[in-house]
């Protein structure tokens, strides 16, 4: 990827200015600095490689050079982002839906085939293909006193096999778009599709249509799941039950073995299927 190619691929989209880096610590940190200096709505930071990419709770996000998409959008409060009606959870969901669309558009010949069902959103913020993590979203709010200054929406997508961390480094199995689609993918074209789709999903923030689309694509619906403590490394199982769907605010609804409905809305939990995933044929990590 280079700056010229990126600009060509994104030409005509209603974005703010774009900053491109061959290498950066974290695009979310750069976007936060820029947001404090008057970056307009939908300004975009893109990096080919991140040396300090972050997940939630300061977990590490792996972005080696030449293999992934790592970018952050700056969202300003306004008609498309009314702070009272928008939660970080909903924004992460809109981003997840956009990543899913981008992947399906990229593999257009395969969409409508079983692949469409294979691209799911694992609550709250992961995009899975064939039940393996392919993308993650990190939405962070920045305040000036009690005024919302901006939300930085960071998205990382594994595109080619080199972007997939070694299995031993992961707490959840991972894959990449190229492995799942079985085709070579142009990263800047995928980025364009994701951004185009996000701009559309943003119009659904605060509306039941976002919640409905999110719930329809939710991984493990109707299946047994374990809910783990996401903070402690030994990952204590907090609950186990059937995943029912989403509450009106985007919280997760679970039915436990006693038939009791649990509402989970803390971001600090991890979701796992009750059954472990079978091994994939062949190697996933090159
Ligand atoms: C996330 O966190 O999934 C959010 C990731 C957001 C990354 C983007 S990239 C652009 C922007 N700039 C940043 O600095 N961040 C954002 P979480 O749910 O906490 O998952 C983190 C966990 O995923 C780690 O602890 C690893 O186990 C695993 N992981 C790390 N890198 C991965 C990768 N490339 N693919 C799959 N899993 C990964």
Tally of helical runs? 7
Strand order in space, largest sheet: 1-2-3-7-6-5-4
Span of the ends, CA to CA:
21 Å
Low-confidence spans: pLDDT under 50, at least 5 residues? 279-286
Shape: globular
Supply Rg. Answer: 18 Å
Order of H and E elements: HEHEEHHEEEEHHHEEEEE
Largest sheet: 7 strands, mixed
* Helical fraction: 10-25%
Class of secondary structure makeup: alpha+beta
Distinct bound molecules: biotinyl-5-AMP
Mean pLDDT: 88
DSSP strand count: 12
What percent strand?
25-35%
Keywords:
286 residues; alpha+beta; 7-stranded mixed β-sheet; 5-stranded antiparallel β-sheet; 7 helices; binds biotinyl-5-AMP
Outline the structure in words.
The structure is a single chain. The protein has 286 residues and is of the alpha+beta class. It has 7 helices and 12 strands. The chain has helices at 3-10, 27-35, 88-106, 114-118, 177-181, 187-201, 208-216, and strands at 18-24, 43-50, 68-75, 119-122, 126-129, 132-144, 147-158, 224-229, 237-246, 252-256, 261-264, 269-273. The strands form 2 sheets. It has a 7-stranded mixed β-sheet with strand order 1-2-3-7-6-5-4, sandwiched between helices. Helix 3 (88-106) packs across helix 6 (187-201) and helix 3 (88-106) packs across helix 7 (208-216). Biotinyl-5-AMP (BT5) is lined by residues 26-28, 50, 53-56, 59-62, 70-72, 125-126, 133, 136-138, 154-156, 158, 163, 165, 170-171, 174.
SSE layout:
Layout (H helix, E strand, L loop, with lengths): L2 H8 L7 E7 L2 H9 L7 E8 L17 E8 L12 H19 L7 H5 E4 L3 E4 L2 E13 L2 E12 L18 H5 L5 H15 L6 H9 L7 E6 L7 E10 L5 E5 L4 E4 L4 E5 L13
Parallel strand pairs: 1-2
Antiparallel strand pairs: 2-3, 3-7, 4-5, 5-6, 6-7, 8-9, 8-12, 9-10, 10-11
Helix pairs in contact: 1-6, 3-6, 3-7
Bound molecules: biotinyl-5-AMP.
């Amino acid at each position: 990827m280079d700056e010229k190619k990126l600009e060509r691929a994104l030409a005509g989209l209603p974005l703010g200015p774009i900053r491109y880096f061959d290498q950066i610590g974290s695009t979310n940190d750069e976007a936060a600095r820029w947001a404090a200096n008057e970056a307009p709505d939908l300004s975009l930071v893109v990096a080919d490689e991140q040396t300090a990419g972050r997940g939630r709770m300061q977990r590490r996000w792996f972005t080696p050079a030449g293999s992934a998409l790592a970018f952050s959008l700056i969202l300003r409060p306004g008609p498309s982002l009314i702070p009272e009606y928008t939660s970080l959870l909903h924004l992460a969901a809109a981003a997840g839906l956009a990543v899913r669309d981008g992947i399906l558009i990229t593999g257009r010949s395969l969409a409508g085939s079983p692949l469409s069902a294979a691209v799911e959103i694992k609550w709250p913020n992961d995009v899975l293909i064939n039940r393996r993590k392919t993308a993650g979203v990190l939405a962070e709010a920045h305040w000036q006193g009690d005024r919302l200054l901006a939300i930085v929406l960071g998205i990382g997508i594994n595109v080619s096999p080199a972007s997939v961390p070694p299995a031993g480094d992961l707490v959840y199995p991972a894959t990449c778009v190229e492995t799942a689609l079985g085709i070579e993918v142009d990263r800047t074209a995928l980025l364009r599709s994701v951004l185009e789709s996000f701009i559309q999903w943003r119009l659904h923030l605060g509306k039941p249509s976002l919640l409905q689309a999110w719930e329809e694509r939710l991984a493990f619906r109707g299946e047994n799941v374990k809910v783990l403590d996401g903070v402690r490394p030994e990952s204590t199982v907090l609950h186990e039950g059937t995943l029912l769907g989403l509450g009106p605010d985007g919280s997760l609804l679970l039915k436990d073995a006693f038939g009791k409905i649990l509402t989970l809305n803390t971001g600090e939990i991890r979701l796992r299927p009750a059954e472990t995933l079978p091994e994939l044929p062949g190697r996933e990590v090159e």
